[in-house]
Each structure stands twice: as structure tokens, then as C-alpha cells.
């Protein structure tokens, strides 16, 4: 399983012409929602662009280098956060009155939403890989345009995009270098 999730998983260069069933989209969410968030706050929100028409609506918000990457995938996901996630806290963490903490400190709520929403987006990557899918994360897009096109009326804010599907071929390039432990870590 570690090979599937990490060691052999690669960012695809292109997408195979293999559609994803709606049941796979539901399975992705059903897995990623189980990942832990602080206080079970669950601030992540997802817009699954499953149809070609919905993905095409994304085009004006994409950086030129990401157009084919996003639109060629059978699924593109807007990973977003709900800044008012704390309104769900009485249901999600009923044994403590956490809602009042966040409602009284919007800076704390914003930090918590961003941190835990990004974390849950990472869970979505792992869920996709566990289901045998390939994933391409993207930050090359205009957040405001994405919010205007897809999130109007929700109050949600886009964070990053994930293109998901089956790679057309193995990546042509070797895996990019990674920092070694001593460069990236302190063991105290």
C-alpha cells in the first residue's frame, strides 16, 4: 500500500481517455472525510467537476500551463474551505462548545479552516491513489475567478485544484529530487 500511496505514485503527464463513474467520486469523498481534522472541524468543501462542460467552465481561471492538465482529466476538483465551518461544530463535536471559540475569533477560524481544509485535500489525494487513480495538484489558477464561477452564494473559498483520473502513460521524466531528512527535518 505504501508503494501505491507514495513510492510509486507519480504526477501524470497526461490523461487516458477513461471516464470515472459518479460512484468513484462518492467513494473519494467517503474516504477522505474520514481523515482527522482538529476538533473534527471538517472545513474542507469540494466541487467535483465531473462533466466536460463543468470542466470547460474552469478554462478562464486556469494558467495557460494548466489548461490541458485540468481539462483533459475526467475529474477536476476545486478544493475549497468554508470560513463558517464552525456553524457545523455543534453537530460534529457536540461534547464541547467549540462553535463559540471560532465565532468569537475569526482569525482563529480562518487559520483553522485553511490548515484543516488543506489537510483534507491531502486526504483526497491519498484516497484517489488508494483507489488506483492518478492525481495532479494545481495552484496555477485565479482563485477569485474560480470562486465567482463555482462558489457564488456558498461563502466557500477555493484553495487548490486536483485533476484526477488515469495517467495516459508513465511519466517521461524521472521523479524530481526530494530534500533529504537533514535538509528538511530537525530531530530534537
Automatic annotation (TrEMBL):
Keywords: Oxidoreductase. Transmembrane segments: none annotated. InterPro entries: Nitroreductase-like, Nitroreductase_HadB/RutE. Its EC number is 1.1.1.298. One of its GO terms (molecular function) is 3-hydroxypropionate dehydrogenase (NADP+) activity. It is an enzyme of class 1 (oxidoreductase). NCBIfam families: PRK05365.1. This is Malonic semialdehyde reductase.
